[in-house]
Specification:
Layout lengths: L1 H18 L1 E9 L5 H11 L5 H14 L16 H6 L6 E6 L3 E7 L7 H8 L4 E7 L6 H12 L4 E7 L8 H15 L7 E5 L23 H7 L5 H4 L3 E11 L2 E7 L4 E2 L4 E5 L3 E10 L2 E2 L3 E2 L3 E6 L10 E4 L5 E12 L10 E6 L2 E14 L6 E2 L9 E14 L6 H4 E5 L6 E10 L15 H8 L4 E6 L6 H14 L4 E5 H4 L11 H20 L3 E5 L5 H10 L5 E7 L2 H7 L4 H6 L21 E4 L5 H14 L11
Parallel strand pairs: 1-3, 1-4, 4-5, 5-6, 23-25, 23-26, 24-25, 26-27
Antiparallel strand pairs: 2-3, 7-8, 7-15, 8-14, 9-13, 10-11, 10-15, 11-12, 11-14, 16-20, 16-22, 17-18, 17-21, 18-19, 18-20, 21-22
Helix pairs in contact: 12-18, 14-15
Amino acid sequence: MDDVVAPMELEQFIETQENKSLLRFITCGSVDDGKSTLIGRLLYDSQQIYDDQLASLEIDSKKVGTQGSEIDFALLVDGLSAEREQGITIDVAYRYFSTEGRKYIVADTPGHEQYTRNMATGASTADLAVILIDARKGVLTQTRRHSYIVSLLGVKNIILAINKMDLVAYSEEVFKSIEADYRSFADRIGLSDFCAIPISALAGDNIFDAGDNTAWYQGPTLMQQLETVEVTADEAAAAFRFPVQWVNRPNLDFRGFSGTVTSGQIKPGDAIAVLPSGVTSKVKNISTYDGDLDQASAGQAVTLVLHDEIDISRGDVLAAANDRPEVTDQFMAHLLWMADEPMLPSRPYMLKTANKSVSATVTALKHKIDVNTLAHDAGSSLELNELGVCNLFLGEPIAFDAFADNKQMGSFILIDGLTNNTIAMGMIDFGLRRADNIHWQPININKSARARIKDQSPAVLWFTGLSGSGKSTIADIVEQRLYARRNHTIILDGDNVRHGLNKDLGFTDTDRVENIRRIAETSKLMVDAGLMVLVSFISPFRAERRLARELMEEGEFVEIFINASLEVCADRDPKGLYEKAKKGEIKNFTGIDSPYENPEQAEIIIDSANLTPDKAADQIMLYLEENGYLSELDYQI
């Protein structure tokens, strides 16, 4: 009989666990506010620790703990050796526990400003945030920063846990003073509806049980609040959105579109629109591994089969035909910068949202946000952990909803194209223009026709190198050689262009990026005119040279690295600039106090320290001839 009962009990236990609601929450706040200790206490008091873990914890507490002979609950969460050595949280630590009423996934996020990006990562999927404050210190800058990020990410449920009450003699006055101070800030960022609880994570006061130390407090304990807080499923009630992750075609008789329903519901027969194309159809079947469904809702991974054969690719969005997202290639967004290198307007990045990756540039930083005062400060770039409001331009239109209306459809990350590192997270506010209002005007005389009449292959010859390396001299000789062949050319020289098109730009990193962006766009127009464009610019950053390359078609961009060492260029110093830069008379001078990034895959490398300009021009002309850029005819003047 026992053999029969045990499996039944196990099945009932599994069923009970599956039917429990799940709450995802984070702990955040400033350094040493007790976040890890609080989570350790939750795990300990909810009896989620195995005997061997408890034995190990007791040993570790004596070795590296901060509580003397007592258990250091923070060690249950601070798993990295660096965290234990420093007594701080570095990475986001996720822990699971459950009670009679709910299942929980809690993210212990770091408090140090350096790791704000990690905190934002943890908050991005949270239903609730526990914001801790050390009762001895009150509201700090990082408390405000984390609160603002929580607000920005749309976390609506907030618990203000005023911790370490045991270190202020459980003072009601201290608690009320901190609560009032925090409320004055929270009201301004839309977090006015929060629950303040006085706790001691170390001693256990008001975690599971109230105890006697805070008899003046009549509110819920932390666990009571976690157990009862309402987490509404807004996604199910929102408009239907389905970013396509995969075109599913196992055989000739089946073609479906796989992905996860991010919001709303869908049934067979429902009309849908495909964005950004705008083509419409109806849902024929909702397929899963276990068979077809009558309905799919937010959070379900399914394959949709449509009545019509439509060109749909990964990254397209299926939406309710009568309630569609916007489509645009420009929008305004809040941006949290997460990289050590600053954000520079006009620098090319990759933007990823809803399974789609497109090229993107920040066209303007509208303002930065001071997390203490919420003031809008002017600025030209964003540094690590800074928040700002920016305009972005994309290489192609995307379908989106404002983040306030749909988190998943309105959020994105920026990626560095060279390192593939995530460098920013963003929340879309609104589109700046509708892509379907602006169209390419068809023109009958195209680039090929213009090039054919000139009997040449249009291209950009991009000369890059340090000041004094010989770029302009060599480019001038190459143009003379091309002119002798009756090629149609033009030179864009860095110094000359700064007298006209770019005379409003200085020499900061931001201005240098914009300088190259304008020249790249100008070069593209001249290539469309069928010309061979010789560009002679220091262009110190790889990212901007890559932007210029990506604007051209395959084979139209020839990068020519005029390679001369800093010492050689400084010895030449034809304009006396290096001497002035060394004296501090010229700021942001490339090679002195501003970096130059050598090309990694230049088509042509010229050793200008050991070649005369004429020999260098010979090498470039030979490359152009061997690679088909010059016609067979060799005209003479």
